[in-house]
Write a structure and sequence with these properties.
The complex is a heterodimer of chains A (108) and B (240). Chain A is of the alpha+beta class and 108 residues long. Chain A has a single domain, classed as Glutaredoxin (3-Layer(aba) Sandwich). In chain A, strands 1-2 form a two-stranded parallel sheet. Chain A has a two-stranded antiparallel ribbon with strand order 3-4. The termini of chain A are far apart. With 240 residues, chain B is mostly helical. Chain B contains ten helices and three strands, in the order H-H-H-H-H-H-H-H-H-H-E-E-E. Chain B has a two-stranded antiparallel ribbon. In chain B, helix 2 packs parallel to helix 4, helix 7 runs antiparallel to helix 8 and helix 9 runs antiparallel to helix 10. The interface between A and B is large, with 66 and 46 residues. Strand 1 of chain A pairs parallel with strand 3 of chain B, so a sheet runs across the interface.
């Protein structure tokens, strides 16, 4: 997947600030995911249950297409989601520094 | 990053039942064999061009697809005809002729049984290339024809909702799922739509993220709950 290098940058830069990346491959053949991960030298954890988009994580997070990114704050609450790597930097900044997001932390 | 894989999801099973359809037919039947060989020929042409890195939108391919479309028009209500129709449209999308596919789809009649396999084929092709316009146009055309069929409307709104989700258009997805329920609250998809609407609420910023745990490709344990105290980026991806 084309955005591994971008994620690797985030990992390098923001890992020391407390960011953990968890990869979730929705490949049905996890071996394909494994060789991709090796090819790109990805060192963050990678889950793959071989169930594709029908797997429990994809279902719980309403994933219909890849890539799909979800940013979670230190308290376990959702900061936001995006399908494009470009949107990630600001979400990650909010998650790490608590910058309030529009509409987040409301009274619902 | 790379050329799309030929991963079109198609209702191939349908073709097995074709022979039964023509038992009482008077006109020259469009046979499954004719359709399948036309499909295989067109796919072969496209694949060869794709594999050599060339644009498959060339005259020879367009001619093959036009012939396939005509096979579908000859007997639109037969299973073989439906297959020809939906394949022709899917392959048009695959070679990048999205608008032509959408226009052809919109011209189908209200009761044509080609609609279901067609929409399924369009959806498969759309997912393959990540372009959903043709499906959305075809689905909208279909919806306009379905005023008297709320159950079918509900099904179509449901698929449209998922298409919006695939493109991360959550507000539009929400509206589509709400229309599923409004069209026919007793339709089988209405319960699924309700569930997705709840999930959309639960996935909103500020709500607790769904927890998960599992064993990684390298055999370690990951538990989202144990990562509390630090920010987490969940990156869902696929190798295709």
């Amino acid at each position: 997947m084309g955005e591994f290098p971008l994620l690797a940058e985030f990992e390098k830069e923001l890992g020391p600030q407390g960011l953990t990346i968890v990869g979730v491959s929705v490949d049905k053949e996890c071996d394909r995911a494994r060789s991709m991960v090796q090819h790109f030298n990805v060192n963050w954890p990678q889950l793959c249950d071989g169930m594709g988009l029908a797997g429990p994580i994809a279902q719980d997070y309403l994933v219909e297409a890849t890539p799909a990114y979800f940013v979670i704050a230190a308290d376990g609450t959702m900061v936001g989601n995006t399908t494009a790597g470009e949107g990630l930097a600001s979400l990650l900044a909010s998650a790490l520094h608590g910058t309030p997001q529009d509409g987040a932390g409301g009274d619902r | 990053m790379k050329a799309p894989n030929p991963r079109v999801v198609l209702p191939v099973l349908l073709s097995f039942f074709t022979s039964v359809t023509f038992a009482a037919g008077g006109t020259r039947p469009v046979t499954t064999e004719a359709v399948e060989s036309a499909v295989a020929a067109a796919r072969g042409q496209i694949q060869a061009l794709e594999e050599s890195g060339e644009d498959p939108n060339v005259e020879a391919v367009r001619t093959s697809l036009a012939a396939l479309w005509e096979l579908g028009r000859e007997q639109p209500d037969s299973v073989a005809g439906e297959r020809a129709t939906s394949e022709a449209l899917s392959l048009l999308i695959r070679i990048g002729r999205v608008d032509e596919a959408a226009a052809k789809a919109a011209a189908l009649g209200p009761d044509e049984s080609a609609w279901d396999p067609l929409l399924e084929g369009l959806l498969g092709a759309a997912r393959e290339v990540g372009r959903y316009e043709a499906f959305e146009k075809a689905a909208s055309a279909r919806l306009a024809l379905l005023q008297a069929r709320p159950d079918q409307q509900a099904r179509l709104w449901f698929v449209l909702g998922r298409i919006h989700l695939a493109q991360d258009r959550r507000d539009e997805a929400r509206q589509a799922f709400e229309r599923v329920v409004a069209a026919d609250s007793r339709a089988p998809v209405a319960a699924s739509a309700q569930k997705i609407l709840l999930q959309l609420d639960e996935l909103a910023p500020g709500r607790a993220a769904p927890v998960f745990a599992g064993t990684t490709l390298s055999g370690e344990r990951v538990d989202l709950e144990k990562l509390r105290g630090g920010a987490v980026l969940v990156a869902v991806w696929a190798s295709w």
